[in-house]
Write a structure and sequence with these properties.
By secondary structure, this protein is an alpha+beta fold. 35% of the residues lie in helices and 22% in strands.
Length: 306
């Protein structure tokens, strides 16, 4: 018979052996324990890459004049309809979806952002009232980024977070890898550059989901118009959302983003809640995003009985 003292001694030896031979866990950037030696790429995403259960399918066929499209369930990511959803295309200002995600992850909404000369010398859409050499509230710039799609706001926020646009773009592509995006690459903080700045409908659905999960971003993108404090005469900046479904008051619309360049055409990612259903649509190189989105979503909600 083994004595109690011997068992205790054996237990201590086993504890020491395991403690010395086991790899201690490290903590990653999201506060999760992970082994030192196990550095793996992110798993393939299932969101926007799978069909819905049989009871949730939307049995209808829609033909729209566009380059690519997707209809998806916002909560589950199940794909309800698609038209070349993996086609890689330029995405114009839908790029700002990723810009916003990187900004809110690496700064504070209470930050004051210095407006540099680069932010006032922009092309394309912009707020147009950024005071060079002054600091403005980050929240005002986030609204300016996501409602009127300000390229000047994108530049200012990128410089604030990363110092240069090049370093910020590297952070955008790093975040794309972390999200498991399969066809996305960024070469612009605003989307004004089309070359090597692209994505696909499935990846954009994943980005939309990530934005809606962030309470701050979700509140901004669901806003039809906003009045924000700003260091200009009158002390207020009036901003309006470019989202055509928000502009027309399409019931249940709560996001997300528009985009346009000559190469990308008209682009839209939009989400709408009706009853227990929450649907999202991605339209790339669309002939007319507003009516197309309304027709697609209307047909889906009708089939779902909403």
């Amino acid at each position: 018979m083994v004595g109690v003292g011997a068992l205790v001694g054996l237990g201590v030896l086993l504890f020491v052996f395991v403690s010395r031979t086991s790899t201690p866990p490290v903590v990653n950037g999201e506060g999760l324990a992970a082994p030192h030696a196990l550095v793996r790429p992110p798993p393939p995403p299932t969101y926007a890459y799978r069909a819905p259960p049989a009871g949730e399918r939307v049995p209808f066929v829609v033909r729209l004049p566009l380059g690519s499209g997707l209809l998806f369930d916002v909560r589950t990511g199940a794909v309800l309809w698609g038209d070349q959803p993996d086609r890689v295309l330029p995405i114009a200002s839908l790029t700002k979806m990723m810009t916003a995600l990187v900004v809110v992850a690496r700064s504070k909404p209470t930050d004051q952002v210095l407006i540099t000369a680069a932010a006032t010398h922009f092309t394309g859409s912009g707020i147009g009232l950024l005071p060079q050499g002054k600091r403005v509230p980050e929240m005002a710039l986030l609204y300016g980024l996501l409602l009127p799609s300000g390229n000047d706001a994108a530049i200012a926020l990128a410089q604030h977070v990363a110092g240069t646009r090049e370093r910020f773009i590297a952070l955008m592509n790093q975040r794309a890898h972390q999200l498991g995006l399969r066809c996305s690459h960024f070469n612009s903080v605003s989307g004004i550059v089309d070359q090597n700045n692209h994505s696909c409908a499935r990846d954009l659905a994943i980005l939309a989901h990530a934005m809606l999960r962030n309470h701050l971003v979700a509140r901004i993108i669901g806003t039809r118009s906003a009045i924000v404090p700003f260091p200009i005469q009158g002390g207020k900046l009036y901003l309006y959302n470019n989202n055509p479904l928000l502009a027309t008051g399409y019931p249940g619309t709560d996001g997300v983003k528009t985009g346009y360049t000559d190469a990308a055409g008209h682009c839209l990612v939009v989400t709408v809640r009706r009853g227990r259903h929450w649907l999202g649509a991605v339209l790339l190189h669309s002939a007319d995003t507003g009516p197309q989105a309304e027709n697609l979503l209307g047909a889906a909600f009708a089939k779902l009985g909403t």
